[in-house]
Design a protein that fits this description.
The chain is mainly alpha-helical. The protein has a domain of 123 residues. It has nine helices and no strands. Helix 4 packs across helix 5 and helix 4 packs across helix 6. It starts with 7 loop residues before the first helix and ends in a 7-residue tail after the last helix. The relative contact order is 0.11. The mean pLDDT is 92.
């Protein structure tokens, strides 16, 4: 059986997908390029040849996560260009838990100058996109992003999403207090 060679773009996407899985599990500091290579089924030197360093691979993974969220919001805005519409779309990303966990790892590694620059640029871009799509006020934006961060953290802890753990009393209280909590 003949093997199909992947294009450079396909190989790049394959490695970012593997990195998303690895970095979600181990974070930036706790993940090696060898782990990413094993998940992708390639050699570790190949990962370094394509990305140059673990940091560049992590930055590519962060860019992917930001781009995926932006694309989700842009698609949602075609149907419902409101904060509610975009918020509902964001909750759908709970099915892609690794995406959100990698962002949290990025925020946690922001003391590293290149990573800090990247996560601030990502967050700023997402803020700008939501503002452009919805015309929301600064106060509405603050509340939207605060709720988004809460949803991200709850998703990472498996309080929300398809792999949610059995609820504890504090979870039930918190979820009941959230706007549109029943719309997961």
């Amino acid at each position: 059986m003949a093997r199909t060679r992947l294009t450079a773009q396909d190989r790049h996407a394959q490695l970012v997908a593997a990195a998303l899985q690895a970095f979600a599990q181990g974070g930036y500091a706790g993940t090696t390029t060898d782990q990413v290579a094993r998940i992708a089924g390639v050699s570790q030197p190949y990962v370094i040849r394509l990305f140059g360093s673990k940091q560049e691979l992590f930055l590519a993974t962060l860019r992917y996560a930001g781009d995926r969220i932006e694309a989700t919001w842009r698609a949602a805005a075609e149907e419902d260009p409101t904060l509610h519409g975009l918020g509902h779309a964001y909750k759908q990303l709970l099915d892609e838990r690794e995406l959100l966990v990698v962002l949290l790892h990025g925020y946690g590694a922001a003391a590293e100058p290149a990573i800090g620059d990247a996560v601030r640029a990502c967050y700023g871009n997402l803020y700008t996109v939501v503002r452009e799509l919805t015309g929301a006020s600064p106060d509405e934006m603050r509340d939207f992003f605060a709720m988004g961060m809460l949803i991200t953290v709850l998703g990472a802890m498996r309080v929300l999403g398809p792999e949610a753990v059995p609820p504890q009393p504090w979870m039930t209280d918190l979820l009941a207090s959230m706007p549109h909590a029943g719309e997961q």
